[in-house]
Amino acid sequence: MDVARTPDEQFADLPGFPFAPHYAEVVAEDLEPVRMHYLDEGPADGPVVLLLHGQPTWSYLYRKVIPVLVEAGLRAIAPDLIGFGRSDKPTDHTDYTVARHVGWVQSLVTGLDLTDVTLVAQDWGGPIGLSVLAAEPDRFARVVAANTILHTADPALADRLTWAVNGTGESRVVLEEALVDYLLYTQRAPVLVPSLFVGAATTNPLEPAVLAAYDAPFPDRRLTAGLRQMTALLPLTRNDVGARLGRRTMRALEQLEKPFLTCYSDGDPATRGWETVFVERVPGAQGQPHRTIAGAGHFLQEDAGEELGRTVAAFVTGG
Protein backbone atom coordinates (compact mmCIF):
# COMPACT_ATOMS: atom_id res chain seq x y z
CA MET A 1 0.00 0.00 0.00
CA ASP A 2 1.40 3.37 -1.03
CA VAL A 3 0.73 6.00 1.64
CA ALA A 4 1.31 9.76 1.45
CA ARG A 5 1.32 12.39 4.19
CA THR A 6 0.48 16.06 3.90
CA PRO A 7 3.53 18.19 4.85
CA ASP A 8 3.26 19.66 8.33
CA GLU A 9 3.79 23.17 7.04
CA GLN A 10 0.35 23.02 5.41
CA PHE A 11 -1.16 23.20 8.90
CA ALA A 12 0.84 26.13 10.26
CA ASP A 13 -1.04 29.14 11.64
CA LEU A 14 -4.54 28.03 10.68
CA PRO A 15 -7.13 30.52 12.04
CA GLY A 16 -8.78 29.51 15.29
CA PHE A 17 -6.91 26.21 15.51
CA PRO A 18 -4.33 26.23 18.33
CA PHE A 19 -4.60 22.51 19.09
CA ALA A 20 -1.62 20.16 19.32
CA PRO A 21 -1.57 17.13 17.00
CA HIS A 22 -1.67 13.56 18.30
CA TYR A 23 -1.14 10.37 16.33
CA ALA A 24 -2.00 6.69 16.67
CA GLU A 25 -1.44 3.68 14.45
CA VAL A 26 -4.72 2.11 13.34
CA VAL A 27 -5.56 -1.01 11.36
CA ALA A 28 -8.43 -2.19 9.21
CA GLU A 29 -9.12 -5.48 7.49
CA ASP A 30 -6.09 -6.78 5.59
CA LEU A 31 -4.14 -3.53 5.26
CA GLU A 32 -0.93 -2.60 7.02
CA PRO A 33 -1.19 -0.06 9.86
CA VAL A 34 -1.57 3.61 9.00
CA ARG A 35 -1.21 6.74 11.10
CA MET A 36 -4.36 8.55 12.22
CA HIS A 37 -4.24 12.10 13.52
CA TYR A 38 -6.54 13.22 16.31
CA LEU A 39 -7.04 16.17 18.63
CA ASP A 40 -7.16 15.44 22.36
CA GLU A 41 -8.24 18.42 24.43
CA GLY A 42 -9.49 18.77 27.99
CA PRO A 43 -8.88 16.78 31.18
CA ALA A 44 -7.47 13.29 30.59
CA ASP A 45 -9.91 11.87 33.13
CA GLY A 46 -12.94 13.76 31.85
CA PRO A 47 -15.91 12.16 30.10
CA VAL A 48 -14.90 11.48 26.49
CA VAL A 49 -16.66 13.13 23.57
CA LEU A 50 -15.69 11.62 20.21
CA LEU A 51 -16.22 14.16 17.42
CA LEU A 52 -16.44 12.61 13.95
CA HIS A 53 -16.38 14.62 10.74
CA GLY A 54 -17.36 13.56 7.24
CA GLN A 55 -16.84 14.61 3.63
CA PRO A 56 -14.87 16.75 2.67
CA THR A 57 -13.76 18.13 6.04
CA TRP A 58 -11.37 17.23 8.87
CA SER A 59 -11.04 17.94 12.58
CA TYR A 60 -10.70 21.66 11.83
CA LEU A 61 -14.50 21.55 11.54
CA TYR A 62 -14.81 21.19 15.32
CA ARG A 63 -12.56 24.07 16.36
CA LYS A 64 -15.53 26.10 17.73
CA VAL A 65 -17.08 23.11 19.51
CA ILE A 66 -14.00 21.87 21.35
CA PRO A 67 -13.41 24.90 23.67
CA VAL A 68 -17.03 24.73 24.86
CA LEU A 69 -16.65 21.05 25.73
CA VAL A 70 -13.33 21.61 27.50
CA GLU A 71 -14.80 24.44 29.56
CA ALA A 72 -17.49 21.99 30.69
CA GLY A 73 -14.81 19.58 31.94
CA LEU A 74 -15.06 17.15 29.03
CA ARG A 75 -12.29 15.46 27.07
CA ALA A 76 -12.77 16.17 23.36
CA ILE A 77 -11.21 13.76 20.87
CA ALA A 78 -11.55 14.68 17.20
CA PRO A 79 -9.83 12.37 14.71
CA ASP A 80 -9.16 12.94 11.05
CA LEU A 81 -10.52 10.05 9.05
CA ILE A 82 -7.87 8.22 7.05
CA GLY A 83 -7.40 10.14 3.80
CA PHE A 84 -8.30 13.46 5.45
CA GLY A 85 -6.64 16.17 7.50
CA ARG A 86 -3.27 15.22 8.98
CA SER A 87 -3.98 11.49 8.82
CA ASP A 88 -2.23 9.16 6.38
CA LYS A 89 -3.55 9.11 2.85
CA PRO A 90 -3.35 5.86 0.86
CA THR A 91 -2.89 6.94 -2.75
CA ASP A 92 -4.89 4.10 -4.34
CA HIS A 93 -8.58 4.92 -4.18
CA THR A 94 -9.49 1.23 -3.90
CA ASP A 95 -7.81 1.08 -0.48
CA TYR A 96 -10.80 3.00 0.88
CA THR A 97 -13.99 1.15 1.74
CA VAL A 98 -16.81 1.87 4.17
CA ALA A 99 -15.80 -1.15 6.25
CA ARG A 100 -12.20 0.05 6.43
CA HIS A 101 -13.24 3.53 7.56
CA VAL A 102 -15.27 1.87 10.31
CA GLY A 103 -12.33 -0.38 11.16
CA TRP A 104 -9.85 2.49 11.35
CA VAL A 105 -12.03 4.48 13.77
CA GLN A 106 -12.78 1.35 15.80
CA SER A 107 -9.04 0.72 16.00
CA LEU A 108 -8.52 4.24 17.39
CA VAL A 109 -11.26 3.81 19.99
CA THR A 110 -9.91 0.47 21.19
CA GLY A 111 -6.26 1.51 20.91
CA LEU A 112 -6.84 4.53 23.14
CA ASP A 113 -9.06 2.34 25.35
CA LEU A 114 -11.85 4.91 25.29
CA THR A 115 -14.87 4.17 27.48
CA ASP A 116 -18.02 5.99 28.52
CA VAL A 117 -17.85 7.72 25.14
CA THR A 118 -20.34 10.23 23.82
CA LEU A 119 -20.36 9.98 20.03
CA VAL A 120 -21.00 13.21 18.12
CA ALA A 121 -21.42 12.38 14.44
CA GLN A 122 -22.02 14.62 11.43
CA ASP A 123 -22.20 13.73 7.72
CA TRP A 124 -20.21 10.49 7.09
CA GLY A 125 -19.29 10.55 10.78
CA GLY A 126 -22.73 9.00 11.37
CA PRO A 127 -22.51 5.92 9.15
CA ILE A 128 -18.94 5.35 10.34
CA GLY A 129 -19.32 6.19 14.01
CA LEU A 130 -22.66 4.47 14.52
CA SER A 131 -21.22 1.32 12.98
CA VAL A 132 -18.31 1.53 15.44
CA LEU A 133 -20.85 1.85 18.24
CA ALA A 134 -22.68 -1.23 16.95
CA ALA A 135 -19.38 -3.15 17.06
CA GLU A 136 -18.25 -1.78 20.45
CA PRO A 137 -21.47 -0.96 22.33
CA ASP A 138 -19.97 -1.26 25.80
CA ARG A 139 -17.55 1.60 25.09
CA PHE A 140 -20.29 4.14 24.34
CA ALA A 141 -22.58 5.95 26.76
CA ARG A 142 -24.66 8.16 24.49
CA VAL A 143 -25.00 9.59 20.97
CA VAL A 144 -25.54 13.00 19.44
CA ALA A 145 -26.57 12.72 15.79
CA ALA A 146 -25.97 16.07 14.09
CA ASN A 147 -26.89 16.43 10.41
CA THR A 148 -26.13 12.82 9.62
CA ILE A 149 -27.80 9.76 8.12
CA LEU A 150 -27.45 6.01 7.79
CA HIS A 151 -26.92 4.55 4.33
CA THR A 152 -29.60 1.86 4.05
CA ALA A 153 -31.56 2.48 0.81
CA ASP A 154 -34.49 1.10 2.81
CA PRO A 155 -37.80 1.25 0.87
CA ALA A 156 -39.45 2.31 4.15
CA LEU A 157 -37.68 5.67 3.75
CA ALA A 158 -39.84 6.58 0.75
CA ASP A 159 -41.30 10.08 1.17
CA ARG A 160 -39.59 10.43 4.57
CA LEU A 161 -36.46 12.30 3.44
CA THR A 162 -35.94 15.61 1.69
CA TRP A 163 -33.16 14.00 -0.34
CA ALA A 164 -34.57 10.70 -1.53
CA VAL A 165 -32.33 7.62 -1.36
CA ASN A 166 -34.51 4.56 -1.16
CA GLY A 167 -35.40 1.38 -2.94
CA THR A 168 -38.82 0.99 -4.52
CA GLY A 169 -40.50 -2.14 -5.71
CA GLU A 170 -38.35 -5.18 -6.27
CA SER A 171 -35.42 -3.68 -8.17
CA ARG A 172 -35.62 0.10 -8.55
CA VAL A 173 -34.37 3.07 -6.57
CA VAL A 174 -35.46 6.66 -6.09
CA LEU A 175 -32.58 9.12 -5.91
CA GLU A 176 -32.40 12.86 -5.36
CA GLU A 177 -31.02 14.48 -8.51
CA ALA A 178 -28.74 16.80 -6.51
CA LEU A 179 -27.16 13.79 -4.82
CA VAL A 180 -26.41 12.12 -8.14
CA ASP A 181 -25.05 15.39 -9.53
CA TYR A 182 -22.73 15.70 -6.52
CA LEU A 183 -21.48 12.16 -6.86
CA LEU A 184 -20.82 12.50 -10.59
CA TYR A 185 -19.04 15.82 -10.16
CA THR A 186 -16.63 14.44 -7.56
CA GLN A 187 -15.72 11.57 -9.85
CA ARG A 188 -15.32 13.60 -13.03
CA ALA A 189 -13.78 16.88 -11.85
CA PRO A 190 -10.04 16.99 -12.55
CA VAL A 191 -9.44 18.82 -9.25
CA LEU A 192 -11.47 18.63 -6.04
CA VAL A 193 -11.47 21.69 -3.78
CA PRO A 194 -13.12 21.01 -0.39
CA SER A 195 -13.71 24.68 0.37
CA LEU A 196 -16.15 24.95 -2.55
CA PHE A 197 -18.45 22.43 -0.88
CA VAL A 198 -17.98 23.75 2.65
CA GLY A 199 -18.63 27.33 1.58
CA ALA A 200 -21.75 26.30 -0.34
CA ALA A 201 -23.23 24.38 2.60
CA THR A 202 -23.02 27.03 5.32
CA THR A 203 -25.45 29.87 5.84
CA ASN A 204 -22.81 32.36 6.99
CA PRO A 205 -20.03 33.43 4.61
CA LEU A 206 -16.65 32.04 5.65
CA GLU A 207 -13.44 34.03 5.70
CA PRO A 208 -10.96 33.17 2.91
CA ALA A 209 -8.42 31.94 5.48
CA VAL A 210 -11.01 29.54 6.94
CA LEU A 211 -11.88 28.20 3.50
CA ALA A 212 -8.17 27.76 2.79
CA ALA A 213 -7.83 25.69 5.98
CA TYR A 214 -10.23 23.12 4.56
CA ASP A 215 -8.06 22.87 1.47
CA ALA A 216 -4.80 22.67 3.44
CA PRO A 217 -4.63 18.84 3.64
CA PHE A 218 -4.71 18.50 -0.15
CA PRO A 219 -1.92 20.54 -1.76
CA ASP A 220 -1.63 18.11 -4.67
CA ARG A 221 -3.76 15.49 -6.43
CA ARG A 222 -1.78 12.54 -5.09
CA LEU A 223 -3.26 13.27 -1.66
CA THR A 224 -6.91 13.32 -2.76
CA ALA A 225 -7.68 9.64 -3.38
CA GLY A 226 -9.65 9.28 -0.14
CA LEU A 227 -11.38 12.62 -0.63
CA ARG A 228 -12.65 11.55 -4.04
CA GLN A 229 -13.40 7.94 -3.12
CA MET A 230 -15.59 8.72 -0.13
CA THR A 231 -18.29 10.09 -2.41
CA ALA A 232 -17.97 7.07 -4.68
CA LEU A 233 -18.68 4.92 -1.60
CA LEU A 234 -22.15 6.43 -1.21
CA PRO A 235 -24.56 3.46 -1.23
CA LEU A 236 -27.30 4.22 -3.74
CA THR A 237 -28.92 0.77 -3.93
CA ARG A 238 -30.04 -1.90 -1.49
CA ASN A 239 -27.39 -4.24 -2.91
CA ASP A 240 -24.44 -1.99 -2.08
CA VAL A 241 -22.16 -3.40 0.61
CA GLY A 242 -22.34 -0.07 2.42
CA ALA A 243 -26.14 -0.24 2.50
CA ARG A 244 -25.99 -3.74 3.95
CA LEU A 245 -23.66 -2.43 6.66
CA GLY A 246 -26.04 0.49 7.25
CA ARG A 247 -29.01 -1.83 7.70
CA ARG A 248 -27.03 -3.97 10.13
CA THR A 249 -26.15 -0.85 12.10
CA MET A 250 -29.78 0.27 12.09
CA ARG A 251 -30.83 -3.07 13.53
CA ALA A 252 -28.36 -2.51 16.36
CA LEU A 253 -29.70 1.02 16.93
CA GLU A 254 -33.23 -0.34 17.11
CA GLN A 255 -32.09 -2.17 20.26
CA LEU A 256 -30.12 0.77 21.70
CA GLU A 257 -31.43 1.97 25.06
CA LYS A 258 -28.60 4.45 25.66
CA PRO A 259 -29.49 8.16 25.37
CA PHE A 260 -29.65 9.26 21.74
CA LEU A 261 -30.06 12.95 20.93
CA THR A 262 -30.70 14.51 17.53
CA CYS A 263 -29.32 18.00 16.93
CA TYR A 264 -30.05 19.01 13.35
CA SER A 265 -30.04 22.37 11.64
CA ASP A 266 -33.04 23.78 9.83
CA GLY A 267 -31.03 24.42 6.66
CA ASP A 268 -29.73 21.04 5.54
CA PRO A 269 -31.90 19.28 2.95
CA ALA A 270 -29.27 16.56 2.51
CA THR A 271 -30.07 15.08 5.94
CA ARG A 272 -33.55 16.44 6.61
CA GLY A 273 -35.93 13.70 7.70
CA TRP A 274 -33.34 11.50 9.37
CA GLU A 275 -33.82 13.21 12.71
CA THR A 276 -37.40 11.92 12.71
CA VAL A 277 -36.38 8.45 11.57
CA PHE A 278 -33.85 8.16 14.39
CA VAL A 279 -36.33 9.36 17.00
CA GLU A 280 -38.89 6.83 15.83
CA ARG A 281 -36.55 3.85 15.59
CA VAL A 282 -33.99 4.25 18.40
CA PRO A 283 -35.41 3.43 21.85
CA GLY A 284 -32.83 5.66 23.55
CA ALA A 285 -34.13 8.67 21.60
CA GLN A 286 -37.45 8.61 23.39
CA GLY A 287 -38.01 11.56 25.71
CA GLN A 288 -34.71 13.29 24.87
CA PRO A 289 -34.51 17.09 24.43
CA HIS A 290 -33.98 16.96 20.67
CA ARG A 291 -32.80 20.19 19.09
CA THR A 292 -33.27 22.03 15.82
CA ILE A 293 -30.65 24.74 15.38
CA ALA A 294 -32.05 27.67 13.42
CA GLY A 295 -30.11 29.49 10.75
CA ALA A 296 -27.47 26.83 10.14
CA GLY A 297 -26.58 24.78 7.09
CA HIS A 298 -25.13 21.31 6.61
CA PHE A 299 -21.91 22.23 8.41
CA LEU A 300 -23.61 23.39 11.58
CA GLN A 301 -20.22 23.33 13.35
CA GLU A 302 -19.32 26.39 11.25
CA ASP A 303 -22.64 28.20 11.53
CA ALA A 304 -23.43 27.34 15.16
CA GLY A 305 -20.40 25.59 16.64
CA GLU A 306 -20.70 27.10 20.10
CA GLU A 307 -24.41 26.26 20.25
CA LEU A 308 -23.71 22.68 19.22
CA GLY A 309 -20.99 22.52 21.87
CA ARG A 310 -23.37 23.75 24.58
CA THR A 311 -25.99 21.23 23.51
CA VAL A 312 -23.50 18.36 23.70
CA ALA A 313 -22.10 19.54 27.04
CA ALA A 314 -25.55 19.79 28.61
CA PHE A 315 -26.44 16.34 27.28
CA VAL A 316 -23.32 14.78 28.79
CA THR A 317 -23.33 16.59 32.13
CA GLY A 318 -27.07 16.84 32.63
CA GLY A 319 -26.77 20.59 32.83
TrEMBL record:
Keywords attached to this entry: Hydrolase
One Pfam family it belongs to: Abhydrolase_1
SUPFAM superfamilies: alpha/beta-Hydrolases
InterPro entries (UniProt xref): AB_hydrolase_1, AB_hydrolase_fold, Epox_hydrolase-like, Haloalkane_dehalogenase
Residues annotated as transmembrane: none
Sample GO molecular function, one term: epoxide hydrolase activity
Entry coiled-coil feature ranges: none
Keyword Hydrolase: yes
Sequence ranges assigned to domain AB hydrolase-1 in this UniProt record: 47-160
Domain of life where this protein originates: Bacteria
NCBIfam families, sorted: PRK00870.1
Name assigned to this protein: Alpha/beta fold hydrolase
The organism's taxonomic lineage, starting at the top: Bacteria, Bacillati, Actinomycetota, Actinomycetes, Propionibacteriales
